[in-house]
Structure formats: structure tokens, C-alpha cells
Write a structure and sequence with these properties.
185 residues, alpha/beta, 5-stranded parallel sheet, 5 strands
Length: 185
């Protein structure tokens, strides 16, 4: 995969944070990533409101149509916001990872955190799922890109949940080294 001129196909399987909720799609971080990596094909398979169950349902057709070399999983936020049990989150993410690996795709998992109002016990159980899966499947775990952005109101939309247009370049720069490393491996 590291031959000169290698053009990777990268599938971003995410929710509103990757779908560019509240802004034109061409201003979201996935489009900005395309601009940074024009030699690669980046497919945005993200849907606002998506849960891990929804991503799992859609994944087989996305894998068949795109045949990605790399799958970036940015799902779980909506599971957490709905209070779904962490074991359900883990089960769905496990199936997503397994399906991607069965297609010989390299998998990058993005850590997701829930707001603190869900309580420390649930928050820890939820976040631990990502660390467990990264260890079990020897995956690169990308730290949650919203952690610093969410703390800066000037980078957030009025809903306090979604990053605004000014945050998108920061997310791109956060994700870029992880994705380029996966391409180069």
C-alpha cells in the first residue's frame, strides 16, 4: 500500500459531526480533507442522526460500492445521546469493525464521548467501549475531536452540540495525521 502514487479509497462512516450538519456539505471537514488529499478518494458515508445500528445497516452497501482501503468509524454519539446501553454500542461497533476488516479495509475508530450530564458512570462505560475495541482489534483510536472544540463556544453552532464552519478546519487538521498515517502504513 505504500507504493508511490498509491491512491487510497477512504470511507468516513459517521453521524452529523462528519455529515456537516447545519452547513453546506462542501464546508464540512470531510470536504476539507478531500482538498488536503486530492490524490485519494474520500467518500462521506455520514448521515445526521445516525446511530451505530443505522451505520451497521448501511455499511454492507457502502463497502460494496466503494471498496474502501480505509474505513473511519465516527459513530456512537447519537447512541449516547439516546442513552442506549454501552453493550449495545459495543455490539454494533464490533459488527461494523468486523465487516470492514472482512473487506480487507484498515479501520480507524474515532473516540466518542457523551456530555457530562449523563453521569460519570455511564460516561465512563460509554467511552471505555472505544478503548476496549481498539485494544481487541489492534485499531488506531483517534481521540475525540470535539473535546477541545465543544469547550469553545465560538466554534459551536447555537445548539451547543454541533461544530460550526469555523471549527471544520480544526477537525480536518486533527484527523489528517491519523488518516495519512493509515494510508502510509
Amino acid at each position: 500500500m505504500c507504493a508511490p502514487g498509491y491512491a487510497a479509497t477512504i470511507l468516513i462512516l459517521g453521524d452529523s459531526l462528519s455529515a456537516g450538519y447545519g452547513m453546506p456539505e462542501n464546508q464540512g471537514w470531510v470536504q476539507l480533507l478531500r482538498d488536503e488529499l486530492p490524490q485519494h478518494t474520500i467518500i462521506n458515508g455520514s448521515v445526521s442522526g445516525e446511530t451505530t445500528a443505522g451505520g451497521l445497516r448501511r455499511l454492507p452497501s457502502l463497502l460494496a460500492s466503494s471498496q474502501p482501503d480505509i474505513v473511519v468509524i465516527e459513530l456512537g454519539g447519537n447512541d449516547g445521546l439516546r442513552g442506549f446501553p454501552p453493550n449495545q454500542l459495543k455490539s454494533n461497533l464490533t459488527k461494523i469493525i468486523t465487516l470492514a476488516k472482512e473487506q480487507n479495509a484498515k479501520v480507524l475508530l474515532t473516540e466518542i464521548m457523551v456530555p457530562p450530564n449523563y453521569g460519570p458512570r455511564y460516561s465512563k462505560m460509554f467511552t471505555d467501549v472505544y478503548y476496549q475495541l481498539a485494544e481487541e482489534y489492534s485499531l488506531s483510536l483517534i481521540p475525540f475531536f470535539m473535546q477541545e472544540i465543544a469547550a469553545d463556544k465560538s466554534l459551536m453552532q447555537r445548539d451547543g452540540i454541533h461544530p460550526n464552519e469555523q471549527a471544520q478546519s480544526k477537525i480536518t487538521q486533527w484527523m489528517l495525521p491519523w488518516i495519512t498515517q493509515a494510508i502510509d502504513e
